Amino acid sequence: MTDFLQLFFSGMATGSIYALAALGFTLLWQASGTINFAQGEFVMLPAFAMVGLIAAGAPLPLAFVLTVVLAIGVLGWAFKRGVVDPLFRHGMMPIVVATIGLSIALSNGVRAGYSAEAHPFAGMFPDRIFNIAGVTITLADCGTLAFALLLVLATQSFLARTVTGRAMQAVAQNTESATVLGINVPRMIFYTFAINAALACAAALLVTPVYLAKFDMGVSLGTKAFFAAVIGGFNNSRGALLGGVIVGVGENLAAAYVSPQYKDAVALALFMVVILFKPQGLLGRKEERKV
Amino acid sequence: MAANMNPQDTPAIEFEDVVAGYKDFMILNNLSFKVRPGSITLLIGPNGAGKSTVLKTLFGLLKPRGGRITLGGVDITAADPKTLLARGIAFVPQGRNLFGQLTVMQNLELGGITLGMKTARERIPEVLDLFPRVRERSNSQASALSGGEQKQLEIGRALLLRPKVLLIDEPSIGLSPLVVQDVFKLLRKLAAGGTTILMVEQNVKSALKISDDAIALESGRLVLHKPASELLADPHIERLFLGGAIETRAA
Predict the structure, then answer these.
(1) Which of A67, A88, A187, B128 counts the most CB atoms within 10 A of its CB?
(2) pLDDT digit string, tens, across residues A152-199
(3) Looking at residue A215, what DSSP letter applies?
(4) What is the rounded distance in angstroms from the CA atom of residue A41 to the CA atom of residue A105?
(5) Does domain B13-99+163-242 have CATH number 3.10.20.30?
(6) Of chain A residues 131-170, which have a CB less than 8 A from chain B?
């Protein structure tokens, strides 16, 4: 039982990182109908930016803040202007294909232009271990879970409680109506891309100390975050959190009780079950779209 | 051409030779008309005549390719929706336009987003006074409202701006006849208060009864502009909105 609880808890910590990336998926989908298959690379690039800034002497908090600013410019603004805006009127598929291409270009670009090695940076939580009723919990897991939860909840309450957040929801729900009310639609969509970029930086900050910054780290992270978003419900940001945690816990338990080789298959298996029996996701709504 | 219009009155809205459309296909072809201040003007015509396009062009959702549009004598031809909202035009488009997952109150607040939240919140009670049913449900999700309540909320959301000109496209779609009458009564009340209303409505006979003037379009051109009462008395009225209308056809 203690093993189970231990695996469950550390799975939640990993799952909360998936949730951050998954939340980005759902936000972009809701606000702009974009599915960004380069989402994993959107975590990998900030990881390398932080590695670089720390190597240049910046302390971790400063490196993180600078990376967020850079990411909002590059992964937020430039991505929207350079990839999404020109393709938007051609429908969703060209954007999907373009982001798959972008993902390949970014990971190989980093491999060729920077390094194929894995680069570490120290985490923001000190190495400490607690023992609660026989269950060993690391401070890093606690901190990761708390930080990710805080960010997900902060994003949600921003969307639900502020006028800007509601205007962003309005744009996601009915763009034409939002235009008619004088809501600045392009700006609201940009905010979504900016939030997605910032969340990706946070995911990079949490994931890199454990899994290291490597050019191909985005592949599995992006895929799992995508599965997590679908499992939870693509049109519900709470679903992203639930999906992330389910994938994180599921793969940890499978690695321990089935076989470590099947770890990465868990997300795919859960994804297929959900698609078959509840295609809108656990917390998602059925959606009708104009064709 | 405008019905009952004193030549020296500044029209609330004026279209002069307006050309507008999509890509190579022009829907409005040198369309000219004037709308009297404080009147309800009904746009009629067959499908594809350009009625909704008039509203979209007027509201800056579609840029005219030619001609001039003025609002109270001021040129607004190239203005965008945000500028037009500030100038006192509000638009209630066809269909469902609410943000279904936000509450009634949040929908109203967003209706006043260009005013700033303080002013918007101050004005919400006066709008809710017009719609007691909507007020009762102000904390419900907008999607939980009945069709009639949703349309009332949409109109209320537009009225938050205290518009001088209200553009409204097919307000009766999907509503029961009783609710339609309520909506029409409200429009009459607004016009009595000085709001100029330009409306597109398929339910032509009922709409003519509350309108002052009617403008008939065909292929994006003006074919008729006269007082609604005259049109209502015309035994050939159906032909006007079914199309192929004005010229007497050889049998």
Answers:
(1) A67
(2) 999 999 999 999 999 999 998 888 999 999 999 999 999 999 999 999
(3) T
(4) 10
(5) no
(6) 163, 166-167, 169-170
CA distance A74 to B157: 37
Q: Kindly tell me the burial class for residue A96, based on how many C-beta atoms sit within 10 Å of its own C-beta (0-12, 13-18, 19 or more).
A: middle
Walk across the sheet containing B74-75 and list its strands.
Answer: B25-35, B13-22, B66-71, B74-75
CA distance, residue B235 to nearest chain A CA (Å): 38
- The residue written with tokens 């491999």 in the block is A111
Q: At A57, list the tokens.
A: 């002497």
Tokens coding A9: 């808890």
- The amino acid sitting at A249 is V
Length of chain B, in residues: 251
B236 pLDDT band, cuts 50/70/90, is confident
CA dihedral A79, A81, A86, A87 (to 10 degrees): 30
Phi, psi of A253 (to 5 degrees): -70, -40
B81, B100, B117 ranked by CB distance to A179: nearest:
B81
Average pLDDT along chain B: 88
Compute the residue count for chain A. Answer: 291
Matching residue, tokens 């290291």: A212
Within A56-121, residue ranges assigned H as helices are 60-71, 79, 85-88, 92-113
Q: How far apart are CA A195 and CA A20, in angstroms?
A: 11
Q: What CA–CA distance (Å, rounded) separates B178 from B176? A: 5
Using CA atoms, how far residue A238 sits from A16, A232, A235, A250, in Å, is 12, 8, 9, 18
ipTM attached to this prediction: 0.85
User: For residue A87, what are its two tokens?
Assistant: 């393709």
How many CB pairs (< 8 A) connect A and B?
55
- Would you kindly state where each structural domain of chain B is located, as residue ranges? 13-99+163-242
> Cβ(B156)–Cβ(B130) under 8 Å?
yes
* Chain A interface disruption, residue of B96, B99, B141, B159, most A CBs within 10 A: B99
